[in-house]
Structure formats: structure tokens, C-alpha cells
Specification:
The chain is an alpha/beta fold. It folds into 2 domains: 27-46 and 287-421, Aspartate Aminotransferase, domain 1; 70-281, Type I PLP-dependent aspartate aminotransferase-like (Major domain) (Aspartate Aminotransferase, domain 2), CATH 3.40.640.10. Helix content is 37%, strand content 14%. The protein has 14 helices and 14 strands. The protein has an 8-stranded mixed sheet, sandwiched between helices. Strands 10-11-14-13 form a 4-stranded antiparallel sheet, covered by helices on one side. A hairpin with a 7-residue loop joins strand 10 (315-317) and strand 11 (325-330). It is globular and about 65 Å long. The structure holds pyridoxal-5'-phosphate (PLP). Pyridoxal-5'-phosphate (PLP) binds at residues 39, 99-101, 125, 170, 175, 203, 205, 233, 235, 240, 245.
């Protein structure tokens, strides 16, 4: 028998398997299942006509073959310039990436070493924690509330002597909670990073999808912090299969990041960059973003009110101002939430469990569900809420819970509402 790790590096053989978020073995595929778990944009609002024009323009050009050459490691100059202008930074700080996950990997490899400490959102985008498996770093969670990462909690940790090397946050329409970092906290965070000398890694793929058009500039003030690596992606606006994104790195580290890039994948497809450039330069692109934001706003409202109608005050919902997710908290703490997830799948609906987003103790997010409204139609969202409610009505108490079987309780189910809300 071959040793399971024969030929593998220490890194390769030490990588843990997926558990929780993204673990395909936890998903039971059934015909007709409705998926509230995903992070895909709605195909109905992707700018397909702009894609067609862009591809036609590119491939129809006499010098199309020139686009098939290698391109510079940090990206094609015209796209870097466009992004530099959009972000209000010098284009030399912009590095085109093959999507957000790639940009996060560059950010982590470029700023952290074994033995370092990183502060992260709690709840957190779980794939960021997976990425940290590449290194041996200490992860310190900091609470995210309705106004983003709790900067007061962070300040307390720093005052008590914690010296992180970096901090990771999703500042706009956070995955999973939908929260957006307030301008006040942005400023405080930048100030703390400066004072205590840590790098802010911020990941902002939902920024272009507010439910209502912004009245202020579409730009994070965190970009002005000296030590910041901003990671962004076209996945939520132009589709994840494009595999295109960008990082903004500190000016003094730009050359070093490009050297790192040269030692990994070298560059992002020049053809895809040319296509994206032709799309984002069109005025209709701005319209398509506004249209998408309004479309997601409607779907968030449909799912939110479908849940509130069925669950009443048994559920508490966040009210995101953009992005793809509702973060729902089910109030009946005595419920067996492992079983609820199975029951929901038996009823034909999948969701992401709150525990899978915990950076600290999982217990904190027991009873939370991340529900994605981006991909399903309004009718499907209503149906998904029905299915979830059917599962909820069949729920059982958690092992060891002091509650009697919920199904056997003499109180009618509707009668649970008042009690759960107290
Ligand atoms: C917060 C966050 N960061 C990064 C990504 C990954 O983006 P990409 O598909 O561009 O790799 C996602 C996708 O769901 C995300 O939600």
C-alpha cells in the first residue's frame, strides 16, 4: 500500500480536509432542491450584451493575435489605469489577479509569516481561514456587528498588548452578516493600523452592489491607510467564471508583490483582461451595476418578508444594504440545529450554517443561517422559505436540551413565538 502522503510536501500533507462551509459531502443533491447556500450572481443581471460586444470587438480587430501574447505580471496597463482611477490610487499600486481568492492568497503570502498573528472578522468569510492553512499563524477573532468589525474590541486587545501583523475584514455588505463598516470605524481602524503597525487586508467584492445608488464616492477610505492590501474581484458583477480581480498594494511593496507574482502564476490571462476592459469602460456597465443592485434589493425584500411572515419573531434578520446574503438568527436556542439542517435538506432547501463562519467559538453562531438570495427567483425564494418553515416545524430539541420534544409539546407551534422572542 502506498503511504497516503507519499511524495507530498509537509505543506501538502498537512492541509486539513474541508469541513463545514464548502464540504460537498454535507450537501444532498435532490432533484428540485433549492440552494440558499451559494455566492453566484443572478445570470439575469449579468451584462451579457456587453460581453458579446467586447468579444466581437477584441476578436474582430486586425491585431487580435497580439492579444494572445504574454502580458506584464501586474496586468495590462489600460486596465490598471482604469482601476487606479476608480480606486483613487496610483495605477502602479494595482495588480490584476485571477479573482478574489487569488488576490487573497497574494495578500497573505505577501504580508504574513509563520508565527505571525492575524485578527479576523467573526463571523468570517470561511475560505479566508482555509487560506491561512498555508501558514502557521495565530488567528484572533474580533466581533462583527451591524457597523462592521468592532473597532473598540480591537482597541482593547491592542491596549492589552496584542501585536497583530495583519487584520482581515470584508468591509462592505460582509459575507456572511451583510454588515458594512461605518465611516467612523473605517477612520479608527486606519488610525489603529498606523499606530500599532499592522497591515489591513480588506476584501471588498460586494462594494459595487448597493441596493440603492450611493450618494458618496464609491471608494473605501481604508485605501488611504499606509499599510493596506485591498483585494477585489469582478466575480459578483461580471461572474465568477471570468476569474478576474485586482489588488491594491502599498506603493513601497508594489515591486515586491510583482516579484512574488512572478514566482507563482506569472500573470492573469491577457485576453480576459482585454474583454473586461472593454466592458467596464462602457457607460452601460454603470447602468448594469445599478440595475443589479436594485434587483438584489427586491430579492432581499422577498426573502426577508417571506421569512418574517412564516417565522414571526422566531427569527431575527439583519437588514443588509447590498450584497447577496441575509444573516438570520433563529431564536429557539434549544433546537437541534444539526438535525434542522438535515430536515431542511430533506424538504429540499440548502443553507449555510452559522457555525461554519465562526472564527472563534462555534457556539456563538449556533442558530444562525446564511441565506443567499442572489441566485433564486422570487418564486423560488418564497418556496425556499416554505420548505425551511416545514423543516422548522419538525425540529427536535438539541441533545441534552432541557426542552421536551418540540413536536410533542402541548403548546401549539404558533404559540412558541411569544416565548421564543422573550
Ligand atoms: C468575501 C469574499 N471574498 C472573496 C471571494 C472569492 O471571490 P472570487 O470568486 O473572485 O475568487 C468571495 C466569493 O464568494 C467572497 O464572498
Amino acid at each position: 500500500m502506498v503511504d497516503a502522503n507519499a511524495g507530498a510536501s509537509r505543506l501538502l500533507s498537512s492541509l486539513p480536509g474541508r469541513s463545514g462551509f464548502g464540504d460537498a459531502s454535507l450537501i444532498r443533491h435532490r432533484a428540485g432542491s433549492l440552494d440558499l447556500g451559494g455566492g453566484n450572481p443572478d445570470p439575469a443581471v449579468l451584462p451579457v450584451a456587453l460581453y458579446r460586444d467586447a468579444v466581437e470587438d477584441l476578436t474582430g480587430a486586425a491585431d487580435f493575435a497580439a492579444s494572445l501574447r504574454y502580458v506584464p505580471a501586474p496586468g495590462i496597463p489600460a486596465l490598471r489605469s482604469w482601476l487606479g482611477e476608480r480606486e483613487g490610487v496610483d495605477p502602479t499600486r494595482v495588480i490584476i489577479t485571477s479573482g478574489g481568492a487569488h488576490g487573497l492568497a497574494l495578500a497573505v503570502l505577501g504580508t504574513l509569516d509563520d508565527g505571525d498573528t492575524i485578527i479576523v472578522d467573526d463571523p468570517v468569510y470561511p475560505l479566508f481561514l482555509r487560506l491561512l492553512d498555508l501558514l502557521e499563524v495565530r488567528v484572533v477573532p474580533v466581533r462583527v456587528d451591524g457597523a462592521g468589525i468592532d473597532v473598540d474590541e480591537l482597541a482593547t486587545l491592542l491596549r492589552s498588548g496584542l501585536r497583530p501583523n495583519a487584520l482581515f475584514t470584508v468591509p462592505t455588505f460582509q459575507n456572511p452578516s451583510g454588515a458594512t463598516l461605518s465611516p467612523g470605524r473605517e477612520a479608527q481602524l486606519a488610525e489603529l493600523a498606523e499606530r500599532y503597525g499592522f497591515t489591513i487586508i480588506f476584501d471588498d467584492p460586494y462594494r459595487d452592489l448597493p441596493f440603492e445608488p450611493r450618494t458618496s464616492a464609491n471608494r473605501s477610505r481604508l485605501l488611504d491607510a499606509e499599510r493596506v492590501v485591498a483585494v477585489n474581484s469582478f466575480s459578483k458583477t461580471l461572474g465568477p467564471a471570468l476569474r478576474l480581480g485586482w489588488n491594491v498594494v502599498p506603493a513601497h511593496l508594489a515591486e515586491q508583490f510583482i516579484k512574488l507574482r512572478n514566482r507563482l502564476d506569472g500573470q492573469t490571462s491577457g485576453v480576459l483582461q482585454e474583454i473586461a476592459l472593454r466592458i467596464v469602460r462602457r457607460p452601460e456597465y454603470v447602468d448594469s451595476l445599478a440595475n443589479a443592485g436594485a434587483h438584489y434589493a427586491k430579492k432581499a425584500a422577498v426573502l426577508g418578508s417571506a421569512l418574517l411572515t412564516r417565522f414571526g419573531n422566531e427569527v431575527r434578520l439583519t437588514e443588509p444594504q447590498g450584497g447577496f446574503f441575509l444573516w438570520a438568527q433563529f431564536m429557539d436556542r434549544g433546537t437541534d440545529f444539526d438535525r434542522l439542517h438535515d430536515l431542511a435538506q430533506e424538504e429540499g432547501v440548502f443553507y449555510q450554517r452559522g457555525e461554519w463562519f465562526a472564527a472563534g467559538t462555534e457556539q456563538r453562531f449556533r442558530g444562525y443561517l446564511r441565506l443567499s438570495f442572489s441566485e433564486l427567483t422570487s418564486t423560488q425564494l418564497e418556496e425556499a422559505a416554505d420548505r425551511l418553515h416545514r423543516a422548522w416545524e419538525m425540529r427536535t430539541p438539541a441533545p441534552g436540551s432541557r426542552l421536551r420534544s418540540i413536536r410533542d409539546a402541548t403548546t401549539p407551534l404558533s404559540g412558541l413565538r411569544g416565548r421564543a422572542s422573550s
